Amino acid sequence: MKHTPLTLTGLLRAALALLCSATFAHSAISFTDIRLWAGAAPGEGIIEAALVVDFRDGQPGLIWGYRWPALESRTGQDMLTAILGADNSLNVDSTLFPNSFSHGTRARSFSNNGTPENYFDDSYWGYWVNNEVYYHPTNFLLNSHIVPPAMEVAPLGNPYGPGRWVESSTGAAARPLVNGSWDGWAYGVFGTQAGEPVAAIPEPGAALLLATGILFLSGRRRIMIAAAGCLTSTAWAAGPYPPGPMEPGSDAIPAASALYIGWAAGVSSFQPGPRQAGTTSSAVSYGSAGSVTGPPDAAGATYPPVSSNPVPAAPVLSLGDGGRVTLTFSPPIANGEGADFAVFENGFATGTAIFAELAFVEVSSNGVDFVRFPAVSCTPVATQTGTFGTLDPRSLHNLAGKYPAGYGTPFDLSELAAAPGLDIRRITHVRLVDVVGDVISDRGSRDSIGNWINDPFPTTFQTGGFDLDAVGVIHEADEPLPHLDLAVYTNSVVLTFIRDASWTDIVLALQQSSSGQEWTPLAVSSNGGGTVPAAGAEVAEAGSSSILVTVTAPRTAGRQMYRLSLQRTP
């Protein structure tokens, strides 16, 4: 065999040949290349999915893996949340609507690219998947959220191999994962897909997950919303949220549903707004407290005629522009699986559109401190919605009134789990605040991400503004059970019990009787406050949230009985 001497040129040619060979032999990144996994340990009965985040900053994106038991359901939200917990270098400002991701020194945030009037050149985080999901026209419960049920999840394979990316038709909370699923978050203008990534490796000392967002991704269509506004396109002009009743994917809950186990018990305050914000018009005066307690009755009701005087017998309570009403609940509303309560208005449907007057929804566990649900409106604002104009429910999220009379708009307390000072296990008050839909002047209302909310304006009637019909309870708090311990000494009796500082709607009364007929108070704790002694008793307390109360009372002659009563305040 003839040997050719190796010269420098020959070496360079050989190196180039090897490089070309390696290039053509390159195989697409796959699950075997992933170095950072979250979720369950690998093993029998465990399935896998992958998450890609592509910053589009001149470097490859990053890939993580996620494992879970095959017999359990998981969503894109579950995978994102698990990976955020596993990789301290990965940060997201809000998992409600991701506005920015960062990993170490790499970061990308929403940008209007200097043209706020043109949504199509905005750079934002798009959501891509490798499964096409087909829907059944009824609702089902998935991971505690009512979402359009997947009739079939069609795998498309590795998007960097034989498969492909498709733009997600749902939010991450409604995207069902299957074995081999890929999720991709890609930064860029509309249509930008995630490029082929490299394996993510945690960086020591990286910043922890930012807690500025609400850990709940809406189980809706693909979110196209950024901090500066709602993106629109021909395909998504209708908006990304559930449609009206009788439409596939609607989360409206009819008044006759067996989900409701209770209704608002009372009204603690009502501040009517004017007939038209920004004018000297008088306040609205239609309806009363009796109009909003108990089950809804606006659908098909007979409405008393409007007069110059208040109309207390009306089936609804009109709030007026910016007006507000606070309702009480006994027992309180509690966080459970899926929606926890629903709000009824008296709007009406015209095809798929709704004549809807909207309201913000706020909740409180002490009647003083209120937290508002993060509302979003994607209704275009270039033209003011007129007095009798209609809205598309698919452009509205967490706004009461998006559904017509007879159908409740659901609210899930788990969205507010991180709110300071709020106990979602015991919501005692719900407040409705009318949205002022004026998008022409600066008197209008904005949603949680700064968008103007466009709803019918002006409504210069005595019945103007949001018309509240009812609030239905789906999950309610368990009644606390009092327990009393007794110790008897020569000259005294020592009684102990536990009170919870969160019982802001409970009165605990320790009482004494010699006959069982007439009872004398020894100590009283009202609405979560400290225990006050009476009748010569002494009180000592220990603890901050679950408080041990010790009451020492003089021992008297004859038979004595003691009881601890619990009474809920309205």
Query: Between the first and last Cα atoms, what is the distance in angstroms?
Result: 102 Å
User: What portion of residues belong to β-strands?
Assistant: 25-35%
Could you tell me the mean pLDDT?
Answer: 81
Specify the structural class. Answer: mainly beta
Q: What's the overall geometry? A: flat
What's the arrangement of secondary structure elements?
Layout: H1 8-24, E1 37-39, E2 46-54, E3 62-69, H2 76-86, E4 90-92, E5 100-103, E6 106-109, E7 124-129, E8 131-135, E9 140-142, E10 145-147, E11 150-155, E12 166-167, E13 181-188, E14 198-199, E15 225-226, E16 229-230, E17 253-254, E18 262-263, E19 266-271, E20 317-318, E21 324-333, E22 341-345, E23 348-350, E24 353-355, E25 359-364, E26 371-372, E27 376-377, E28 396-397, E29 407-411, E30 427-434, E31 467-473, E32 485-488, E33 492-500, E34 506-513, E35 520-526, E36 531-533, E37 538-542, E38 546-554, E39 561-568
Parallel strand pairs: 1-3, 2-13, 3-14
Antiparallel strand pairs: 2-3, 4-5, 5-6, 7-12, 7-13, 8-11, 9-10, 15-16, 17-29, 18-31, 19-21, 20-31, 21-30, 22-29, 22-31, 23-24, 25-26, 25-30, 27-28, 32-33, 33-38, 34-35, 34-39, 35-36, 37-38
What does this molecule look like?
With 570 residues, this protein is mostly beta strands. The chain folds into three domains: 31-230, no CATH class; 241-478, no CATH class; 485-568, Immunoglobulin-like (Sandwich). The chain has two helices and 39 strands. The strands form eleven sheets. Strands 1, 2, 3, 7, 12, 13 and 14 form a seven-stranded mixed sheet that branches. The radius of gyration is 30 Å and the shape is flat. The model is unreliable at 1-26, 135-151, 203-229 and 231-237 (pLDDT under 50).
